[in-house]
Amino acid sequence: MRARAATVGDLEALFRDLSKRISDEYAAAGKDSKIAYDNLMMNLKEGRAHALVQGEKTVAIIAWHEHSDAADTLFAAQEDFFSAATVRFCKRHIRHIQALAGNLPIHSRSWLQRPDVAKWFRIIGYVERGQENGANLFELPPARAE
Fold first, then answer.
1. Which of 143, 116, 16, 145 shows the shortest CA–CA distance to 76?
2. Of 62 and 118, which is predicted with more confidence?
3. pLDDT bucket at 103, cuts 50 / 70 / 90
4. What pTM value is reported for the model?
5. DSSP state, 144?
6. How far apart, in whole angstroms, are the C-alpha atoms of residue 37 and residue 74?
7. What would the mean pLDDT of 72-100 be, rounded to a whole number?
8. 76 contacts: CB under 8 Å, gap ≥ 6
């Protein structure tokens, strides 16, 4: 798996075969896939979206937006994305995104109560920070200086 700057074509291909678990997540957040698509497109146009590519196929897009105290993530994926290998890749890649965002804490949210999601976030290095607007808030603390 590798990451590169996401393109409009990546986003379109991804949303043609969006994972049901991601669609369910959007619905639980009170958004439809069109709103999610538009939000990802905005970040893509601002240069803050990476395509996660397996072989030649884009299987996910992760985008981020910096605020004063943290960087929030947006995410979309096809079912092919969800595996142990991709979680290991994301553990490294999210630190790269964090560096691009000025080593701010990274905030990610999940509106579904899935134990596998909480486990994946813990493996990546996130800490659960409780509820925020109906979602479980996960935070990746800033990287320590080496």
1. 16
2. 62
3. very high
4. 0.92
5. P
6. 10
7. 92
8. 11, 14, 15, 18, 22, 36, 37, 40, 60, 61
Strand, coil or helix: 135: strand
Distance CA 66, CA 102 (A): 9
Rounded Cα–Cα distance for residues 21 and 5 (Å): 24
What b/e sequence results for 18-45 when a residue is b if at least 16 CB atoms lie within 10 Å of its CB, and e otherwise? bbeebeebbeebeeeeeebbeebbebbe
Burial of 6 (0-12, 13-18, 19+ CB in 10 A): buried
Q: How confident is the model at residue 68 (pLDDT cuts 50, 70, 90)?
A: confident
Q: Which residue has the tokens 């320590």?
A: 144
Tokens for 36, please give them.
Answer: 């999610």
CB-based contacts of 47, cutoff 8 Å, min separation 6: 5
Q: Amino acid letter at 75? A: F
